[in-house]
Amino acid sequence: MNTIEKVKKLVAEQLCISTDDIADDADIVELGADSIDVVELLTTFEDEFEVTIPDEKVESLKTIPAIVKAIEEIKK
């Protein structure tokens, strides 16, 4: 499973929706995530991908592509 598929799977699980309902360029707030969901998702991403997302990047992580990019940059 590549990074984008894994991110979409984790978002789908958190928001109780199908991965089929998540476009590759989806905005997680538009999918129904509230502030608590966002915090829980960030924690989940850190655990699943074994990364630490810097606080200054958190505000920009609103879309699937932004999340994937941040994770891949941190993992390098």
Explain what the structure shows.
This protein has four helices and no strands. The protein has 76 residues and is an all-alpha fold. The protein has a single domain, classed as ACP-like (Non-ribosomal Peptide Synthetase Peptidyl Carrier Protein, Chain A). The model has no long low-confidence stretch (mean pLDDT 94).
Strand content: under 5%
Helix fraction? 55-70%
Number of strands: 0
**Low-pLDDT residue spans:** none
Might you state the CATH topology name?
Non-ribosomal Peptide Synthetase Peptidyl Carrier Protein, Chain A
Using the 3D structure, state the CATH architecture. Answer: Orthogonal Bundle
Q: What class do helices, strands and sheet pairing give?
A: mainly alpha
CATH homology superfamily: ACP-like
The H/E string reads HHHH
CATH top level? Mainly Alpha
User: Mean pLDDT across all residues, rounded?
Assistant: 94
- Total DSSP helices: 4
